[in-house]
Specification:
With 645 residues, this protein is of the alpha+beta class. 25% of the residues lie in helices and 28% in strands.
């Protein structure tokens, strides 16, 4: 096959691309229907209007336990002048829901009846016509419209339909989305991870998009992965479009690589209206038509795939069913730091959210299109319009919510230094207090203290070494947060050292080896406690950081550093023993340091923080962290109050 590198067609603005795509298929509606039992129709769209076949109630019914009477027979009754009625003649015992006896038009509550004997009762107040009575057809009248066509059936609808004598309803068939993954690097998600070869990744996008199709009201078929071969991909797309598919998605091959075949496939079998949209992630999306049916080239990166689906496929599914696309709840938030963006692109930034004081704060997550965890960890999405170069810190903006607002209000926002124990803490907190969530953003120890200063978090993880006296954290809190009373709660002590590949092939002994020509280092970001520790150790041996290859290469977590060493990106990285142990790396210990949670005193007496402290001091938490290795829990929970008068 003659392989050519694709060239993007003219980039199309996001809103224009979506409008164009939906307009092209404005008449593409689901006409196929099926009849379903009412309970099974929840979540489906009615294909026709539904009219009641029976009234509800179908008779005049007692609405209270008591006695049924003809109202006019009770007139004249008053307190002190009771009126006597005879059971079986002008008064009849009824229970709630019973049919009203002939000749009766009211019910007197049993509590308002004085029973003389089994045959006579006294009442001291008159009844009025239709008192405590549900009239025939009060709720539903036979032949009335219960629901129009294109109505979404809900659990509440089930009750109304059955009450109206409807037991089966016609619903629209869900549009079938055929999903075709492509790429020779894709591995079957059921494969044993140990059998995956270098260069292979699990094919997960098709499963994710399939479930997104179901959530939008469609159904899906996932076809087997096709390698990057134009003829094979064309054959699969043609078969899908000629078959039962209502729309076809091809995952991968929509970009500009030499093996990206989706563009040519669509051109050979149909037409393309859009190739490249001014959105990020999701820019390489292709929108077109194949054999008269919608065809979408979905980018291969998972976040790009999800964004492209949400912007184009989900609205088309809803339009096809004749229902509006759902709108997410939105809230005004303030970013904890500046978020830069590129002019000309609508960018969707995934953020963690929490309510700190009286405002909602947003911490940006990693923005890479391949970082699927930036979606799973996100509480919301901030859209930066193409006309903006970004958002300033603390400037109010709108975020679409991915979680309920109540969950975000019950989130403890932690910003600062990364540690694996925070994952254990979050899990234990969720286990004990299901309505509470610990949300951690890793920006380094100093970044965490700055977040406290700016009101952007409830607590910060910190392990800042005072090189003057060997103490931790106190002097930094005094320096950077002089006006904020803070409680330093010791989470644990932990072992820091150099991480190297198993067997230590470069025979690294200490920081003095980092300047060797055959050593490449991976560093932590400026402002992190680990970076401060490294610089202190380098100064102690008189080494200029400029001599270290890789000193400027930065990662934001210990696990990222460990992965860099494991993957051969670097020979050495500085981090905690738990990270080295987790990835089976060798570890050269350097220091045991104290890791604290810095908590402003104003939050210490709040319920969420009290619950968090209970978890920290529990034996279960301490034991789970200790099992990770390299942790010392003897002082866990110890408190030092700083900056009080």
């Amino acid at each position: 096959m003659n392989i050519k590198r694709n060239i993007y067609l003219e980039m199309t603005p996001l809103a224009r691309a979506r409008d164009l795509f939906l307009e092209k298929f404005a008449d593409f509606r689901m006409t196929r229907t099926e009849k379903m039992p009412v309970p099974d129709a929840v979540g489906r769209i009615l294909a026709q209007p539904v009219f009641a076949r029976a009234s509800a109630p179908g008779y005049h019914a007692a609405a209270m336990d008591g006695v049924a009477v003809l109202a006019e027979n009770t007139y004249g009754a008053a307190e002190g002048r009771p009126k006597t009625l005879t059971i079986g003649e002008d008064a009849f015992y009824v229970n709630t829901g019973h049919i009203l006896p002939d000749g009766c038009d009211a019910v007197i509550m049993i509590e308002q009846v004085d029973v003389h004997d089994e045959g006579r009762i006294d009442i001291e107040a008159p009844a009025f016509p239709w008192q405590h009575v549900r009239k025939m057809g009060e709720d539903i009248v036979a032949t009335q419209l219960l629901f129009p066509q294109n109505h979404l059936v809900t659990p509440y609808c089930v009750g109304a339909l059955i009450a109206g004598g409807i037991f089966h309803v016609p619903v629209k068939k869900r549009p079938l989305v055929v999903i075709l993954p492509t790429g020779k690097e894709m591995a079957n998600p059921e494969s044993d991870p140990d059998t995956i070869k270098p260069g292979q990744i699990f094919e997960s996008n098709s499963h994710m998009l399939g479930k997104m199709a179901e959530a939008a009201g469609g159904r899906y078929e996932r076809w087997e992965t096709t390698i990057d071969d134009l003829d094979l991909i064309k054959e699969a797309v043609k078969k899908a479009a000629d078959g039962d598919a209502d729309m076809v998605l091809v995952i991968g091959g929509s970009s500009a690589g030499s093996e990206d075949c989706t563009k040519q496939t669509f051109l050979d079998l149909g037409e393309i209206w859009v190739h490249g949209v001014t959105m990020m992630p999701g820019k390489p999306v292709i929108l077109g038509k194949v054999r008269g049916k919608p065809a979408v080239g979905i980018p291969g990166y998972p976040v790009s795939a999800a964004m492209a689906f949400e912007q184009f496929v989900a609205p088309l599914i809803c339009q096809t069913l004749g229902v509006p696309a759902p709108q997410r709840e939105a809230v005004t938030v303030e970013p904890t730091r500046k978020i830069a963006s590129r002019l000309g692109l609508d960018e969707f930034v995934r953020v963690k959210l929490g309510k700190v004081g009286n405002r909602f704060v947003a911490s940006p997550l990693p923005r890479g299109a391949g970082t699927i965890t930036s979606l799973t960890q996100a509480d919301g999405i901030i859209r930066i319009p193409s006309s903006s170069e970004g958002i300033l810190q603390n400037k109010p903006v709108t975020a679409e919510l991915l979680r309920p607002l109540s969950a975000i209000q019950n989130t403890i926002v932690a910003v600062g230094s990364h540690d694996n124990a925070l994952d254990i803490l979050a899990d234990e907190l969720k286990s004990r207090y299901g309505d509470l969530t610990l949300s951690s953003s890793h920006v380094g120890s100093l970044g965490g203290l700055m977040a406290i200063k700016n009101g952007g978090c409830h607590l910060a993880g910190t392990h800042l070494l005072d090189t003057a006296d060997g103490s931790y954290n106190v002097s930094y809190v005094k320096k950077h947060l002089p006006d904020i009373p803070v409680c330093l709660v010791t989470l644990m002590h932990r072992d820091q050292g150099l991480m190297v590949a198993r067997g230590n092939p470069k025979r690294v002994k200490g920081v003095e080896d980092l300047g060797r020509d055959d050593i490449r280092f991976i560093n932590r970001q400026a402002g992190s406690g680990t970076r401060i520790l490294l610089d202190y150790k380098l100064a102690a041996v008189g080494m200029d950081p400029a001599r270290i290859a890789g000193y400027e290469s930065e990662e934001y977590t210990h696990m990222s550093v460990a992965v860099a060493v494991l993957g051969g990106v670097a020979d050495v990285g500085l981090g905690i023993f738990a990270a080295a142990r987790a990835l089976d790396l060798d570890f050269i210990p350097m220091v045991t340091e104290r890791y604290d949670l810095a908590i402003p005193l104003q939050y210490m007496d709040t319920d969420p923080i009290r619950h968090l402290l209970d978890v920290i001091e529990s034996a279960t938490f301490k034991n789970r962290v200790a099992e990770l290795g390299g942790y010392h829990m003897e002082e866990t929970g110890r408190r030092i109050v700083v900056n009080t008068a």
